[in-house]
User: Fold these one by one.
Assistant:
Number 1:
Amino acid sequence: MTTTTNDSPSFTFPPTHSFPPFYTLQPNSSTLHAQLTTWSSIVLGYCRHHRLFKLSLSDALGWDLFYNKQISRRLSLKDARELIEFMKVNDNRAEWVYSKQVKGEANVCWIWWRRADEWAEILESWIESTGQKNMVLTLYELTEGESTRGTEFHGMDTEVMQRSLGVLVKKGKAQVFGSDDQQGVKFY
């Protein structure tokens, strides 16, 4: 699973992140909606900044994302799950990964700071601009290859890449072939 990197500069949190009541979900529905919208924006920005595609809530509760040491406040696991559910339902920016569960509940989720269709557009644009049409590239070349260094999708989680390629396949702009560990893709 992708984790934060120490070589990237610190993420700048908004002032709200230092407001103690922000860490307790509010009972008023309109206030709660505004609070979850703000949390969602923070999570998306944080994950994008650190290039996180998957988030383990049990791990993330100890990170500065959900824990502000300066004010000694932490979002609870229950509230973090409610936040992820909000992100999933309201704007399809999160999705539970059900393979790892804690006490019968999902613990790991995808954070879609770019959705698969948005990644597909970026890939398609890169294919066009680099003259890769009708060429065969491996998933490794796309996610880790020299030619993709400096692109937004370099270092991308393989499953996110596969989903993004799936969008292009459905549009008839790519064909994926090979076995799971040796997949190739041809772009049209």
Number 2:
Amino acid sequence: MASIDDLFKVSLALRLDCSDAGLTVKQKPWPPSNKRKFEYTHDPKAVYKVTKVDANGNAKSNGTATVEDLPEDDDMEAGPAPPPDESDEIIDDEEGRFFGGGITSDTADVLDFIDKQDEGHDEVRKSVQDYRGKRLTSCQQNPEKIDAAWLRKLALNFERRISKNSELRAKFEHDPQKFMGSEADLDADIKALSILSEHPDLYGEFAKLGCVASLVSLLSHENTDVAIDAIEVVNELTDEDVEAEQEQWDAVVDAMLEADLLSLLFDNITRLDETNESDRAGLYHILSVLENLSSRSAISESVGKDTPFIPWFLKRMQHKEPTVSQNKQYSAEILAILLQSSSLNRMKLIEADGVDVLLQLLSPYRKRDPAKGTEEEEYVENLFDCVTCCVDEPAGKTKLLEAEGIELCLIMLREGKMSKPRALRLLDHALGGTAGAACCEKLVEAAGLKTIFSILMKKVLHHTSHKNSHETPKEPRVPPR
């Protein structure tokens, strides 16, 4: 056990080290006490009463006595007993914890050290300088440089972690305690790869080493927590905020696609349970990866052509929820992005009878507006975007007619508020082109011209009244001769 001198020297050494290094150690002020103070309800002096003493030495309890009422007796003692004289013998307790000065032995040693610190200051200074020299030597060493050599070392350790975990899982399949340690180490190494998002210049080397394929392969790991962490790292590496050149970004994304990233992402969607918070976060990361990859139209088209994501989006948006969740809104947003970037994706949605599903999802908002600034409001906007993209295709116009979409848009124009301008834009896309002739006829049959012209007239009248209310009438200008 360290002595009090050693502890004090270390404390003093740290102080001197900080001062010599030009550092200022700020002591935090004591926080203001929230403890309630006792509040007196009467004068404390009035409470104190001097006890009367009769001639026999008995105290009288009746009546209030004052100092003058006390008999003058020089032998009488009042108040607390005086302290013992210094000459009185002080008896130590059995354990020897206290001394005549009222301090402990440790406190006495500290005080003695403080008294002698001037004498031993040179020795303390020397120890401090030695400690500071070792510390400066350690700080002067070059920090770990993140370069190709560092990446190769990281990749080697990462591959070893994967192999070790696979071996232990196969060997102790029915005894999870034997491989949980290696799984925790593997999970930590996966998260450590996220630092590469700050060094996109290493993306090419990262792909050449085969580490990208190994990372993507972990999406099929038996432990969903490990798979979710791998998906999160993939999301960080492909995020649009990464300051990577297009060539660097393409190198790592192409390596991911070669490792069958899209299929593995969908496989994880089917096994995640959104009632679990971590699984719900994992689904959000999957949707975010799809958004990142959709910045390339070719990949966006592959998502719709090679994977069943589009039918899944339709199914996910039909889930009934008390309030529109973040993942439900995000699903509608990703679907809108996929439809905008590829005609093939639009045709796949149309063939899956997606126009009718989207119109059914929009039907509740023909008279009711979602709350502003909520996930539901953005969700409704994304639904309108999806239908608008579909009606740009001739087949989409036909589906809109079959699902009575023209009539729904007219109801929104008459009774809706938030949905009114979006329904008008949807009609604009549906009526355009030669393929929109049938939609035009349907609009006329449903008395839609009256609704549309009334909207146009309201805007004109509103503009005129607004203009006249702010301008005073002027006399007609006389033309110059």
Number 3:
Amino acid sequence: MVTRAATNPEGVTGEFKGDIEVSNKLPSKGDLERIADLPVLDDAGEAHAFKTLYSSTAEARRVLIIFIRHFFCGNCQEYLRALSSVFTPETLLELESPTQIVVIGHGQPDVIPFYVKETACPFPIYADPTKKIHTLLGMTRTLNLGNKAPEYMQDSVMVNAVKSIFQELRSGRNILKGGDLYQVGGEFLFENGKVTWCHRMKNTRDHTEIPELRAVLGLDGGRPPMPKRWGTGLGRALSNRRQSWSRSRSGTRRKSPPRGVMSKVPEETRRDEANGAIHESTNGIAAAQASA
């Protein structure tokens, strides 16, 4: 059941359990025109027009763009691990309609290499620190957990909350660069410059389940294999493979994003990141204990 959650003036839901009301209405032509030239940043801090991510290429006619939460979100990390165990860039290109997957977070691009190492994600990852694309595509802000854990999650809310805290501590200087803890994402399938299917998250764990995503992409309806738990060696190998896409394009080592880009990030976003971390983790642990 979908419940309407109370919101504060900034639009953050005041409830913790249940879902918030969102629409999965497809973005209009006008919506796409407004976001087409907005910048997303790669792991070297280089800006790319958003439309370049979904423009049809000789390789892929469809692009599935997955918008995640902040880069330290354990729920989204589990989702990408599950996704990577079922889909690979090679198998997606072999579909009747060749497809690519692109991931977009809303933290700083400095955190992308750390995120790749943690998730072994083989798909390109970009950052939208201003969250303008998230907002214009109708994705919302909440800390609601939903009423039940999704199938793709192998760890409890409590375990993921603790992992998130330790990741932030291990990230060193990037501890405040993960992104807005309240901002949730969704999935959008682009074909020929238009969105033909989309799903906006109703809570912090509401990514599209893998079986539904298989059906959307035209794969068989069988139950996908359980996500693999990546070993350190395999994870590092896949991480290196994933990072090669960026190095092959630039031929240079990663550098920090331009100061101009950093200055565009709203001050309130940085306050959200600093003040929200303990709030989210504490709420997550409390929810897990309450449902036990």
Number 4:
Amino acid sequence: MQAIARSGVPVVSMRIYSDSRRCSVPTWDVNELMPALESAGFTQAARSIKSISLSVSTKVKTDWQEIWGAVDDLSEVDRAYHNARLRPQARLLSQDDPTAVAEGNYPGIARLLKQMLNLERLELHLYNTLSGVAESYAKVFTYIADELILTSLKHCTLRGLYSDEESLLKFLRAHEGLVELKLCNMHLVSGSWTPVFAQLCAMESIQWIILSDIWASGIGLIHLAPKGTSSSSWSSDGTNSYPCVRGTIVHTRAISRAEILDNGLDFARRPSGRQLGSPAFQRYFKARQVEYGPP
């Protein structure tokens, strides 16, 4: 990006690790890079960018002596799993490690996107590299909601991010011109999805909403089958749903403007009982881990 800034060549679209599995830029590194980018003239160069797809990650260990020291401390069985790349916990920071939750992990993404005031398409993906839930990274989206207003934004995809209800509502209200919104593996660490769904229904320009694998604190996965439909009417092939003890949980839906006008975003009660250990659930679970971590 420094080279782009110095070259003066107008760049319309950027893709940064968006198609590379398990390759992401740590949010800490983005924040550390920003002063050099700004001094290189990136603010001026970024005005031509209309589309960005960016994959970022939580904090990662970079001290190989520390990593191999952690491997040496593993039991014989765990070391064998580590060497087989089945349990790589020795390479991961814990979710409450001081470096993983330091404030420098959070503001860089908002600071970067603020340079791109003419964005029309935004795709942001977070990969979790911690040995636990990355709820503290809801602050990444809080910074985005507090600091970012993209008046030309039409298409937005948020994958793997954490947020609270207030920040997500603030972002949506600042971008009511959205035509398409995709929320994939999105976690609300506090609050409810109900006000968010009401806000989405009120956004008159939106034509498509794609919801996939959205979560709420204290509730878990949100069941996305329309209210009034039987969960048994949904295929449980693992693409959009999987079976549980008393029905089928729908985790992915594409919802058109016409459906929103007819039915709103009112979903059926989630079927009770644990998920079944089916091929459909295993496909869902494995795909989610590959896409969002931890490794």
